[in-house]
């Protein structure tokens, strides 16, 4: 069965009133405009009054905490209800394997591309830094909360020792692991038999999206506080110290993003510029808060509304937050060469390939880990003996300046991964995507809970979701 045709045929609008007949809202009520004003205001406050800007950090941290409050249960509910809609455990397994294949290829390419840029630009050449002049204490303070793990420990860390502990610690990979088992159990026992549980979970999911809507109303406040703190704490003047490194990283990011545009158009036929316009509020909020976690619930909803199945979105996005950090991979490989060059070390091809292998392992699971970039670089330096581990402290002043690059590339890379995997698995409705991009059948906010049209269970089309004009209750949609 063709998932696009079956979804299009079975997805008659639940609300005949199109969005374009409603009164157009004034521009100042747009979340995008409000966040933009908040970010610009934060930059101005942080630059003119740095002490005040640094003191506004609790505003940004508070907003991130509100988002984290709902992330774990929301991901659990999205994945379980999505798997229950697919009704095919093998399809879920195939989706996970395909996602990991894509993640590995994308990360490897990002690391190799970063090494190429670092060799061509040579951002650290001529600095002649003495490692003894750098503070090991500052580096220890940055990385003390997250000791590096080897590959075995990382894999074991995906399996929760306690389900309650996984939710309490907001360990997304552990929550995802349990959600896959829970959803698979529903499929094996039978959706009809488990319908009371599924109905309850869909209702609770609607409640969580309602809470998310309330939290997003204070997003401009969070973006203002976070940006004022970053500029007030680190200042715009520090840009000059790392000018060539920053230029290399941001230049590499622009080229990488252009490649993502090509990938998105070549296979799933997604016009990525229209997608970025469709998700401009989420990208601007991620930039303002320097965190992709702040937009995880909304970006999952937007991808679902744009034709990706709920099960695929629920699996790919949370997994990609740990396994597909393209922006971080670019930064790590360029920074590694920057440090080696700054200390006068010229790495040959063999050393760079060895560093590539170590970075492939140390770059995984970086999302949400304090000082993760320093940990990855320290582990690489220690494993290969390229330069003193204390030398990583040289990046302490530049790390925050790279947040914007990492956030945009990480987020966009995971969105493209979702489209690619959904298309690969036959769970992508391009017509629904085009309707969402055109603003048809959607409100200013994304649909709270995707409606589920009646399609045969066990097919890929069962996972495809139509963007609904209003927040439709899952119970009402059945």
From TrEMBL:
GO terms for molecular function: fumarate transmembrane transporter activity; malate:proton symporter activity; succinate transmembrane transporter activity. Its main location: membrane. It is a multi-pass membrane protein. PROSITE patterns: NA_DICARBOXYL_SYMP_1, NA_DICARBOXYL_SYMP_2. The keyword Cytoplasm does not apply. GO terms for biological process: L-aspartate transmembrane transport. Residues 460-478 have a biased composition (Low complexity). InterPro entries: Na-dicarboxylate_symporter, Na-dicarboxylate_symporter_CS, Na:dicarbo_symporter_sf. Gene3D superfamilies: Sodium:dicarboxylate symporter. One of its GO terms (cellular component) is plasma membrane. It is found in: Cell membrane. Residues 1-22, 459-478 are annotated as: Disordered. The chain crosses the membrane at residues 31-49, 69-87, 99-121, 171-190, 211-236, 242-267, 328-347, 367-396. Keywords: Cell membrane, Membrane, Symport, Transmembrane, Transmembrane helix, Transport. It holds the Pfam family SDF. PANTHER family: AEROBIC C4-DICARBOXYLATE TRANSPORT PROTEIN (PTHR42865:SF1), PROTON/GLUTAMATE-ASPARTATE SYMPORTER (PTHR42865). This is Na+/H+ dicarboxylate symporter.
